[in-house]
Amino acid sequence: MKFDLKNLFKKKKPKAQSNKPLFGVDADDDWRIVMFVFLSLTLVVFVWNGFIFYKTNSYLKKESAKEIGTKLIDQKTLEELVVKYISQALEFEKVKTETATLIDPSR
After folding, report:
1. Is residue 49 a part of any domain in this protein?
2. Residue 83 is part of which domain span?
3. Low-confidence ranges of the chain (pLDDT < 70)
4. Is 89 a member of any domain?
5. DSSP string for 13-73
């Protein structure tokens, strides 16, 4: 490749601007544009999903199940939760068996 010093500093003529639309003229070019956009967006979605999966499953690389042990839930909290559900079940049974004590205002 030769460098021509005479033409190096000459002003270049601006290329003619055309009003030809980019999309809708040639079907082959249109399909190339559509496929490029589709594949680009698909790649972005896969990368984003991989990033989110990596961030949300970060516990896998911190410690394994063997290192955690068998005590995963606080015993006291679990017992309080069981007592709460038992009391709710008893209250619901009491409500089902009792009759209403209100007086009917329509009579």
Report:
1. yes
2. 24-96
3. 1-21, 58-73, 107
4. yes
5. PPPPP----SSSS-HHHHHHHHHHHHHHHHHHHHHHHHHHHHHHTTHHHH--HHHH-S--S
